Each structure stands twice: as C-alpha cells, then as structure tokens.
Amino acid sequence: MAKNSDLYVKRATIATLKQAAGVVELVPAGRVYPLQRPDDPVWPFIGYGVPIAEPFAASCLNGSATTVAIHGYAQTEGDGAETKSGEDTALLINAAIEAALDGATIELDDYGCPYPATAHYTCVGSQVIQDGSEADKFHGFVSFRITVSS
C-alpha cells in the first residue's frame, strides 16, 4: 500500500536547507520557513511550497512521489556601488537550494517517520520573477520531484 510521507519530507527538506552552508551564506537558518510564513518576514527568506503528492506502489516498494517548489525571496539592497541586486540574489538563492537538495538521499525516520522510508530529490527546474508590483523584490523557486520509497 502506498504511503504519504509529505510531513516527513517537509521536515527533512527544511532541516537540510537550514544546515546547508551555501544556503545559510545567503539566508540565515532562522529565515527558512514551512508553508506558513510569518506575517512580515525579514528579507531574504526561503519558504517551503505547496506539495503535490502521488502515491505509488511497486514490487517490494511502497511510497509516494511529491513535487514541491522551494521559494526564495530577495530584494535589492544598498545604494550606488554598494547595491546588491535582488534579482541576482534570488538567482544565487536558487542555485544554493539546488546544490543543497538535488541528488540528495535522506532517511525520513530521522524526521519522525514511523516506518523506514528514504527520500530521493531531483531538481526539475527553477525560475526567478519580479515579486508583484515591487521593482526591487524578486521571487525565485526551485522545483523538485521527491520520490519516497519504503
């Protein structure tokens, strides 16, 4: 029987991002959030997206395949020669998220999963867009296909 592991995938993903040196250089670990973010988060920050889970069962395997986007938010900071482009920072955040998770294999029992399960991460694409009507704020997202086998 297929098993939905979204809660444990979310926990593992957020914990991994909070510990990844490349991510923390750009976004402090305290600004990596689940789907529910604070009302007025300090920029830059990262948020776990809305997962879409599909169950699967195969010979000797039960699990799920989840597609989720990890969102990175950045804004232009500084003045003159000290200006840091929000667009460039969002692109760097995307690259750090991808480096931290693409190809990762994470044991979910370390994150409260009550049965043995392993999550396998594959990046399927990324994008950066201007965030709403704000000229200096940008929203990046990196999409992953996460296959969980148990």
Verbal overview:
- With 150 residues, the chain is α+β, with helices and mostly antiparallel strands.
- It has one domain (6-35, 42-149): STM4215-like (2-Layer Sandwich).
- It contains 3 helices and 7 strands; from the N terminus they run H-H-E-E-E-E-H-E-E-E.
- Strands 1, 2, 3, 4, 5, 6 and 7 form a 7-stranded mixed sheet that branches.
- Strand 6 (118-130) and strand 7 form a beta hairpin.
- The longest helix is centred in the middle third of the chain and has 16 residues, at 86-101.
- 35% of the residues are buried.
Describe how the helices and strands are arranged:
Layout: H1 6-19, H2 21-24, E1 32-33, E2 45-48, E3 52-58, E4 61-75, H3 86-101, E5 105-107, E6 118-130, E7 137-149
Number of domains: 1
Assign the CATH architecture.
Answer: 2-Layer Sandwich
> What is the name of the CATH class?
Alpha Beta
Average pLDDT, all residues: 92
CATH topology: STM4215-like
Oligomeric category: single chain
Helix content: 10-25%
> Could you state the order of secondary-structure elements as H and E?
HHEEEEHEEE
Strand content: 35-45%
- Which class of secondary structure composition applies to the elements? alpha+beta
Structure characteristics:
150 residues, alpha+beta, STM4215-like, seven-stranded mixed beta sheet, 3 helices, 7 strands
